[in-house]
Amino acid sequence: MSNSSSITQFLLLAFTDTRELQLLHFWLFLGIYLAALLANGLIITAIACDHHLHTPMYFFLLNLSLLDLGSISTTVPKAMDNSLWDTRAISYTGCAAQVFLFYFLMSAEYSLLTVMAYDRYVAICQPLHYRTLLGSRACVHMAPAAWGSGFLDAVLHTANTFSIPLCQGNALDQFFCEVPQILKLSCSDAYLREVWLLMLSSFLGFGCFVFIVVSYVQIFRAVLRIPSEQGRHKAFSMCLPHLAVVSLFISTGMFAYLKFPSISSPSLDLVVAVLYSVVPPAVNPLIYSMRNQELKGAVRKLMTRGFSEAIYCPCPSTCHL
Questions:
Q1: With left for phi above 0 and alpha for psi between -120 and 50, is residue 86 left, alpha or beta?
Q2: Distance between CA atoms of 115 and 97, rounded to whole angstroms?
Q3: Kind and range of the H or E run holding 160
Q4: Contacts for 262-266 with beta carbons within 8 Å, 24 or more apart?
Q5: CA-CA distance, 134 to 66, in Å (whole number)?
Q6: How far from the centroid of its chain's Cα atoms is residue 33's Cα?
Q7: What is the pTM of this model?
Q8: Mean pLDDT, residues 84-94 taken together
Q9: What is the mean pLDDT of residues 235-262?
């Protein structure tokens, strides 16, 4: 039996005990990580450098790419390090930092996706009021509000989780520090505080989910009333990427946290964690650039300038909306 005050490190779940497969996991995660860095980095740079993309929609997309870069950098590098050096250890401080950053970035991303749903709703359903409702001042307040909500959520969860006494060892059944796995090590009813906090976060998240659903019901009703086929195609092209990203984010997250205990197992939990923490940040840039001709053109223009010119591109540090 051990107490949380005496725990100096946690042991993460290894993907496999076979050395060859450990190296395979390292190279696989390295490829995914580099692809996510490159894709999100290109989107951020393209939006920042191309003044044609200095609009609310792309301003929010730039913030989304920043959050994706942060979230995948929170979990994957440590997993690669453990696979490469055949270790499972993560320090107590490192675990707390990982929990804080993961909740901060994921909560902020969910809030930002809700804001982006509102952006699409106004653009499709109230186009004449778009500049009024989503001008520079509104965007500058909405994006920090999303980041701020994530920060507050992360502070509450991290402080509450790591104040709970732990006496069930220090082995976590996950490849990164995940709050539900840490709660399994609790030795008292104190963990119920975090359970209630998780339920409160889920309730607020459900409110955002309802807002997104209602927004898209109104959007699709408005799109179907557009007389021209070209107009409907353009409207769908604006909305479908965001809807796909939201669906991927919510479906994987809900399955990870709301699945029945009877179907839970370390291997399944590991796969699901990869799906909701690693796949979205790597896939989101592809989803957004697939049907967006303006973004693809900006990225293509950026790449043709050459790597050295892209680094010293005289672009503004922030989007002027």
A1: left
A2: 27
A3: helix 136-161
A4: 266/13, 266/173
A5: 21
A6: 14
A7: 0.84
A8: 89
A9: 75
